[in-house]
Amino acid sequence: LYSHKKVGWKPADIISTVEFNHSGELLATGDKGGRVVIFQQELESKNQPQCRGEYNVYSTFQSHEPEFDYLKSLEIEEKINKIRWLPQKNAAQFLLSTNDKTIKLWKISERDKRPEGYNLKEEDGRYRDPTTVTTLRVPVFQPMDLMVEASPRRVFANAHTYHINSISVNSDCETYLSADDLRINLWNLEITDRSFNIVDIKPVNMEELTEVITAAEFHPNQCNTFVYSSSKGTIRLCDMRASALCDQHSKLFEEPEDPSNRSFFSEIISSISDVKFSHSGRYMMTRDYLSVKIWDLNMESRPVETYQVHEYLRSKLCSLYENDCIFDKFECCWNGNDSVVMTGSYNNFFRMFDRGYRQDVTLEASRESSKPRSVLKPRKVCTGGKRKKDEISVDSLDFNKKILHTAWHPQDNIIAVATTNNLYIFQDKL
Amino acid sequence: MFPKGTKRKFSDSREEPVAGGEDVNQSSLAAVRMLSSYSLQRQSLLDMSLIKLQLCHMLVEPNLCRSVLIANTVRQIQEEMTQDGTWQIMTQALSAANAAAQCSADRLVATEVLCRQTEAAQGEQVPKPFPVVGSEGCPAKEVLEEEAAAAEVGMTMSTVSPQAPTSYLPGTFGMDPCWEEEETGEDDDDEEEEEDSEECGSGSEGEERERDSLVEDTRTAEQVFGTFEIKNPAPSPDPALEELFSDVDASYYDLDTVLTGMQSVPKMGPYDLLESLSSHGPSPLSSSTSCRSDLNELDHIMEIIVGS
């Protein structure tokens, strides 16, 4: 595996979201400072066939700025919570980026030629006196250095009282949903002054609030279907054809609690931090604090597969509650053919689970362990007893080094892994 | 993680609700050692959760998911404590102490119970300094340690007992007059003060500040725990504000109030927080400084509970 990383130096550089576009050629990252950085994969070079195509910075722009809510006397963070690409329709690329309150549609376009040869202006830009213009000259496009421009095309604002945690583009490519803690809204990409509320779980009396929405996503193929997960470990699948307001779910996915594992932290660790449909649309994956679960959409009673990410933390839940790590929201992702799933952990570890071969591996994203063109060495956490060489004991794990955001190329074995300060891109050289 | 000091408090409250004298202390000591660690852990978790709820609104708009999960945890603990009867004991103790309440200041839970039980038990009129217990170590609470780093500690229990409502008082359950009396005993006092001075500084200066800062915002405890006590619904927001923002969805704001008990919290960055905790002067009663004093107060309370 190669490794290729970009480095951020300031707290504002903390990466908060990572997303490949539909072809995998572009990789977008959003950070705490409201910036979006897009990387582009270089075309394969005939001279260096091993160099599959490294990712280099393609475009950088400021998507969101910090704001102040005067009514509540609270700051609105500019941190980018999610980025989602639209399927490409023409030469330009479009993506949606969102902070806690506002979603923006950005157009990223290339310009590699410009018209030259106008005879209407002087050198300094002033318009010439029309009577001095004696020839009709048609400007000609001349090549220029590639310039990538990002321009905001739509701003979808003022529709969310609570913090937006998810956005998802519909397969119809005309609408998208945005979800906050208590509500989900449906938008038309062309219309910014109106959105439809499709889910509302806010209780009449806020004192009765016990559950919030944690993630939501549209089905990859069925444009009428979406799911949303909750802080109580449930996933609800909704059909927009059934009614305008989808408070009544079509399906409720929930695994009964294991009574032997019950503790005061049971609910917290059951809270789902991410939900992702498989590319096929037949399965969905959820991430809770300790595990990844694969659900068959046809079976609501329990997941079909469960993978333990870091079960050794179960005995440390009290400490993790104390230092707030128990509230960390890890994301998860599928590979292109849905055979492998990946998620992050602590100590800059990330885990991959091969569903077919029933194998899993723990890898580390760090400068020390990743030299260019070197193969990543599998890591192991020692859970008790004698610690073998190269193993790490649970107590020496660094809980400040957490990998919350990972992304997998839609077709190839290329993954992007974000640590607190760095982005790592690993490629599988076959 | 759960040292004997904490155990002692807890079991005292179970065994000897109202007592005085040295011999009681010794029998309590024996009873203490048999206390189940489960109850202690549960208590500690409850205290920790309450602190998290209090503090979470100090920064940028709090994370609702986190707040809800913590609040649910507190409810779970409360339900369990109600089921095994420990909740009722605490509530009863509070009611008894309520009758003897003199001061109008409403303070966070622990202080109230401590004050009242002291008065009920000893009938003392004179304020008596109680050094914060540092005996035999204490559970290391990261949150507390951070906040307490610069704060001096000293406690005055009696005169400032609040006129608090009959709402339950979580977090103080471990507090008990027996424990306090034990510390008022000559030997214990010296011992405690020694240990106390290691970590927390002298008592007298803190005592004065404590008295001043205890004359505080009376809504706090009521609001913080309003959610969890069926008898006491959360107080309604300021009617003038309501009217002004009647067309605004203030529901989030309400939850904030309900869960965290503070309405007009000034924005404070992390450095402000530390600064306010280390300030020693008496704080005038005003909403703009109430949260800073509350933090001082909270800090003191938790140190009593935790025994740092």
Class inferred from helices and paired strands of chain B: mainly alpha
Q: List the uncertain runs of chain B.
A: 1-20, 102-237, 245-289
Query: What is the strand arrangement across the widest sheet of chain A?
Result: 1-32-31-30
Largest interface: A-B, 34 and 37 residues
Our estimate of the beta-strand percent of chain A is 35-45%
What spatial order of strands do you see in the largest sheet of chain B? 1-2
Look at the structure and give the mean pLDDT of chain A.
92
Overview of this structure, please?
The complex is a heterodimer of chains A (430) and B (308). Chain A is mainly beta. Chain A has helices at 266-270, 317-322, and strands at 2-7, 15-20, 26-31, 35-41, 55-62, 67-69, 74-76, 82-85, 93-98, 103-116, 140-156, 164-169, 175-180, 183-188, 196-200, 213-218, 225-230, 235-239, 251-253, 274-277, 283-287, 291-296, 305-308, 332-334, 340-344, 349-354, 359-364, 380-382, 391-393, 405-408, 414-418, 422-427. In chain A, the strands form 9 sheets. A 4-stranded antiparallel β-sheet of chain A has the order 1-32-31-30, with no helix packed on it. Chain A is globular and about 90 Å long. Chain B is mostly helical and 308 residues long. In chain B, 59% of the residues lie in helices and 1% in strands. Chain B has 15 helices and 2 strands. In chain B, strands 1-2 form a two-stranded antiparallel ribbon. In chain B, α1 (4-15) crosses α2 (22-32), α5 crosses α6 and α14 packs across α15 (287-306). The longest helix of chain B is centred in the N-terminal third of the chain and has 20 residues, at 64-83. Chain B is globular and about 65 Å long. The two termini of chain B are 12 Å apart. The chains are: A mainly beta (430), B mainly alpha (308). Chain A binds chain B through residues 69, 71-77, 100, 161-163, 181-182, 202, 206-207, 209-212, 214, 231, 264-265, 267-268, 271, 318, 321-324, 327, and chain B through 1, 41-42, 45, 48, 52, 60-61, 63-66, 68-69, 71-73, 75-77, 141-143, 226-227, 233-234, 245, 248-249, 251-255, 258, 267. Chain A: This is Serine/threonine-protein phosphatase 2A 55 kDa regulatory subunit B. Chain A: Keywords: Repeat, WD repeat. Chain A: PP2A consists of a common heterodimeric core enzyme, composed of a 36 kDa catalytic subunit (subunit C) and a 65 kDa constant regulatory subunit (PR65 or subunit A), that associates with a variety of regulatory subunits. Chain A: One of its GO terms (molecular function) is protein phosphatase regulator activity.
